[in-house]
Amino acid sequence: MKNIYKKLFIIVLPISFQYLMSALVSASDAFMLGFLDQDSLSAVSLATQIAFIYSLFFGAFVYGCSVLAAQYWGKGDKKTVDEVLAITMRYTLLVGLIFTLATLFVPKQIMHVFTSDPILISKGAGYLRMVSLSYIIGGFSQVYFGILKICDKAVLSSVIGSISVVLNIVLNACLIFGLGFFPEMGIGGAALATIIARVFEAAFVLVLIFMGKCPSLNIMKMLMINSVGQRLSKELHKDYWKYTVPLLLNQLGWGGGVAMYSVIMGHLGSDATAANSIASIVRGIVASFCWGIASGVSIILGQMMGRNELDEAKRAGGSFVRFSILIGFISGLILLAVTPLLMKVITFEGQARGYLKIMMFLSSYYIIGNSLNSTIIGGIFPAGGDTKFGMWCDIITLWGVVVPLGMLGAFVWKFSIPVVAFILTLDEFVKIPAVYIHYMKYKWVKNITKEVASE
Length: 455
Hints:
Number of strands: 0
Shape: globular
Order of helices and strands: HHHHHHHHHHHHHHHHHHH
Helix content: over 70%
Oligomer: single chain
Strand content: under 5%
Distance between the termini: 39 Å
Radius of gyration: 22 Å
Structural class: mainly alpha
Number of helices: 19
């Protein structure tokens, strides 16, 4: 078991660091835009929900890739891993193009979904139009980040992502405030910094491909123009969607529910929106390790089951569950510890300041359930191809319980904002009993690879 944890940390640390660095970009946006004015912070906070929604799509595609590729990589079948990469890239770029075109041509209509405030709509639309190209470019990079982790090169993925984040943060400061010879662009500067960082990531990945440091992309198979191995591609394509569709519905159901939290807060005013934005960003920074554990657990267990080490995977899963609870408690204590410092740094006044303090307290216990559920639903279950349970669990919990209660509390019963925020933190704990019962059935312990016919 010690060797498993050693391997887990080898995978988890770079992945968690990459999650952390990504969260720091959002933090830098919020911190720097907060110096401009609260409306700029709130507008960009709502506008970036589009990037979050897109991440649900490419996250599902990459996760579907991980479900198959991790087991085939553990089996030693690198050729099939390359085919899974081509399939994943095909759909990620297609959806990325749709998001790019939508934010370029109808940004105001998109912002109307999140808020009715004309100032926030105007500022957010300008940001979306300028940042539109980042979606398709970022999708290309994210697929490669995912495949690098599966192929035991998580450190390489982390290095690219981390350098990109540093570049993004530095450019944020230069372009938002007009430092040195850079123009002062405000919200537009934050958007341009994002574009440049995504271009850098994609360029770095292309260099690695040409150097042979990571799997190359088979363009013909991505475009479905392959003539050799057609039967295998069809079968693999079918398997890919078998595991990806539940993950996609899960991502959209869960992410749509989380986006509804921002919609609810966005319609409760700028103070609630700003406080929720900062609390979410800080929680995301602290939760980076929890999410890294979920990704690492999925890869390790998937590789074990691909090698038919099913009993070992079952024992390792139990150990990972206990470890996730410990990490959740530690993360909650960290959130409580940083709250006083956060209150000194953030320049909110009046109600926004009070809302932020309450939301940080709510985040401190929310993250415990999030750590446990992300490890089991996002790590253990998909490792063995069990992707449907998480879909139903998240959709029913969010759309059947938490979102309706949140909307009723906010708009019908007229509860105070702290009470509405409390309701919106219930989802992780409502589903824990069902998650644990399903875990104990061990349906997730399964080798899903197939023998590949020779061509």
